[in-house]
UniProtKB/TrEMBL annotation:
It comes from Papaver somniferum (Opium poppy). The chain crosses the membrane at residues 51-73. This is phospholipid:diacylglycerol acyltransferase. Pfam families: LCAT. It is an enzyme of class 2 (transferase). Residues 1-46 are annotated as: Disordered. It catalyses: a glycerophospholipid + a 1,2-diacyl-sn-glycerol = a monoacylglycerophospholipid + a triacyl-sn-glycerol. GO terms for cellular component: membrane. It is a single-pass membrane protein. PANTHER family: LECITHIN-CHOLESTEROL ACYLTRANSFERASE-RELATED.
């Protein structure tokens, strides 16, 4: 059998390569050429996202959620947030203006607002080259954008001349005018806005409301010298009275505005050129009532710590946590030094140094607030009191004695020691020495740079300072600042108010060195929050030496021990009752005793009332800053306070409001102050 062999046909041509085939071939080649290590790393990744991928996804999710919420907020009905709040907290009470409108109250007396320190807006009218593009832009208030964009330029423009207390060469910063000057301090953070809105509900409008804006940095008399602000307030009040049928104004000062308007009442009646020349009956003709809110009549201890070390309670805690940021030259951001350099040029801050010395604030071995209970809940549950116009108070609970009269103590042991155990070396005539760092600290110069180690040691060796020696302390550490301050403010107690010495304007903002106007039909209210721990005295220590430093700081390690319950010491700060800024003693004493009835400070017997508002924080975040707050600024949204203001503006008297409304021990403490009345 023959073997047949089939001839091979021609091989078919290779298929044409498409783009897809080329990609597959490339991938096959890559797989063949891939090293084992590459394969292992691929297996290890297992398709996971990298860190960058995760970050991108996270940012994308956050942005998406943000835009979704923003869209939902703008798309929802205006009443929806209120509906949610009421569903959680229950029905909300009517705003005071709406409530009183339903009762039939209508606008009657024109209203004048006098803002306090830092709450009024300031804008630039002339500046250095670093402030180009900021003409009439707010440097204070609003968004504070320039603080972040050009901080040193901002500090330079917010500072005043260290010799005159007025404008530096080439810089003009002026107060914003109108109701917008202080309705909001920053976007969403109201000051006067809630009160203005509620007054509008009973018929008030801009022609019957006036914001007496002023440059709160400069001394009170200098607001007239530079801006004629006092004359403008006088003219506006006269116009408001004349155009509203002769109805007198209701004046509502807040915080330092209380002292500013006290100065105004003396200025307006004093003869020219020092005064406004309105005559001794100007206030009687034009003012129905002065409703002071959170007034620091007798000063605030917080002013001492601010001028001494640029600190308050919260700043001291931050300084202890992050000293490299606030104290040292970190990226040239010597924060506290710049703050001190700037604020020590603001003469107005010296108006709030405690007044009356040891007679008012206490000494080494006593204070009016002896027995104060720091735990406010415990105080309310364990003590009860009844207060009448004569200051009769039932005894409440007592606790371990706190030496509030020792306003500054160097060391907790000194703050607690009996007076006889404290060895002190007088600092007043001590040699200050010379600080070699002064030549390298021009950009953050403070007066501490003129003090050597001998002067710093002398301050610490005196151990403890009461309100009477605080003035001498500030003269020693800041002589330039206090030289300007002495020309515009006084902090003592007048022996004889008829002495022509007290006709000078430097005494007009101190209620212990001036008389109220002769206006027996006028009423004065002191309205303030209580129930919040408020700075009263401090424990200090020396700061470790470094270049361009502030040598003193609050000792945040000083705390009350378990065996010292009730001593109110926390983070180096002793606290007493108040509104978080102004202690009850300062806000309430003058209306409770100093001006109560006919006294040498109130010769015409103007009626005075203490209206206290017990602090109740918001129960949840939806309530914002709350409607029952007693905090120094948040009280401006307190419904009870707003209702009192509206009723008086609509014609009510203090007696019709119910007279005094007191929750604190102010009458009891006032009786401990032995002041000739």
């Amino acid at each position: 059998m023959s073997m047949l062999r089939r001839r091979k046909g021609p091989e078919p041509p290779p298929p044409e390569k498409t783009h897809e085939n080329e990609i597959e071939d490339d991938n096959d080649n890559k797989k063949k050429n891939k090293s084992p290590s590459t394969e292992e790393s691929t297996k290890k990744r297992g398709g996971r996202f990298s860190c960058v991928d995760n970050c991108c996804w996270f940012i994308g999710c956050v942005c998406s959620i943000w835009w979704l919420l923003l869209f939902s907020y703008n798309a929802m009905p205006a009443s929806f947030p209120q509906y949610v709040t009421e569903a959680i907290t229950g029905p909300l009470p009517d705003p005071p203006g709406l409530k009183l409108h339903k009762e039939g109250l209508i606008a009657k007396h024109p209203v004048v607002f006098v803002p306090g320190i830092v709450t009024g807006g300031l804008e630039l009218w002339e500046g250095k080259s670093c402030a180009d593009g900021l003409f009439r832009k707010r440097l204070w208030g609003g968004t504070f954008g320039e603080v972040y964009k050009r901080p040193l330029c901002w500090v330079e423009h917010m500072s005043l001349n260290n010799e005159t207390g007025l404008d530096p060469d080439g810089i003009r910063v002026r107060p914003v005018t109108g109701l917008v000057a202080a309705d909001y301090f920053a976007p969403g953070y109201f000051v006067w806005a809630v009160l203005i809105a509620n007054l509008a509900r009973i018929g008030y409008e801009e022609k019957t409301m006036y914001m007496a804006a002023y440059d709160w940095r400069i001394s009170f008399q200098n607001t007239e010298v530079r801006d004629q602000t006092l004359s403008r307030i006088k003219s506006n009040i006269e116009v408001m009275v004349a155009t509203n049928g002769g109805k007198k104004v209701v004046v509502i000062p807040h915080s330092m505005g209380v002292l500013y308007f006290l100065h105004f009442m003396k200025w307006v009646e004093a003869p020219a050129p020092m005064g406004g020349g309105g005559g001794s009956d100007w206030c009687a003709k034009h003012i129905k009532a002065v409703m002071n809110i959170g007034g620091p009549f007798l000063g605030v201890p917080k002013a001492v710590s601010g001028l001494f070390s640029s600190e308050a309670k919260d700043v001291a805690v931050a300084r202890a946590i992050a000293p490299g940021v606030l104290d040292k030259d970190l990226f040239r951001l010597q924060t506290l030094q710049h703050v001190m350099r700037m604020t020590r040029t603001w003469d107005s801050t010296m108006s709030m140094i405690p007044k009356g010395g040891d007679t008012i604030w206490g000494g080494l071995d006593w204070s009016p607030e002896e027995g104060n209970v720091c735990n406010l809940k415990k105080r309310k549950s364990n003590s009860s009191q009844v207060v009448d116009q004569n200051g009769t108070v039932a005894e409440g609970c007592t606790t371990k004695k706190a030496h509030y009269g020792r306003m500054v103590s160097f060391g907790k042991d000194v703050a607690d020691a009996p007076p006889s155990a404290i060895e002190r070396i007088d600092f007043r005539d001590a040699f200050k020495g010379h600080n070699l760092a002064n030549s390298t600290c021009d950009d953050v110069w403070t007066e501490y740079h003129d003090m050597g180690f001998a002067g710093i040691k002398a301050v610490a060796d005196y151990k403890v300072y009461t309100a009477g020696s605080i003035i001498d302390l500030l003269h020693f550490v800041a002589p330039k600042m206090m030289k300007r301050g002495d020309a515009h403010f006084s902090h003592g107690i007048a022996e004889n108010l008829d002495d022509p010495l007290y006709d000078h304007y430097k005494y007009w903002s101190n209620p212990l060195e001036t008389k109220l106007p002769n206006a027996p039909d006028m009423e004065i209210f002191s309205m303030y929050g209580v129930g919040i721990p408020t700075e009263r005295s401090y424990v200090y220590k020396l700061t470790p030496t470094s270049e361009c430093y502030i040598p003193f700081q609050i000792d945040t390690s000083a705390e009350s021990g378990k065996e010292e319950e009730g001593s109110c010491l926390k983070g180096g700060v002793y606290t007493a009752d108040g509104d978080e800024t102004v202690p009850v003693l300062s806000a309430g004493y003058m209306c409770a005793k100093g001006w109560r009835g006919k006294t040498r400070f109130n010769p015409s017997g103007i009626k005075t009332y203490n209206r206290e508002y017990d602090h109740a924080p918001p129960s949840n975040l939806l309530e914002g800053r709350g409607t029952q707050s007693g905090a120094h600024v948040d009280i401006m949204g307190n419904f009870a306070l707003i209702e009192d203001v509206i009723r008086v503006a609509a014609g009510a008297t203090g007696e019709e409001l119910g007279g005094d409304q007191v929750h604190s021990d102010i009458f009891k403490w006032s009786e401990k102050i032995k002041l000739k009345l």
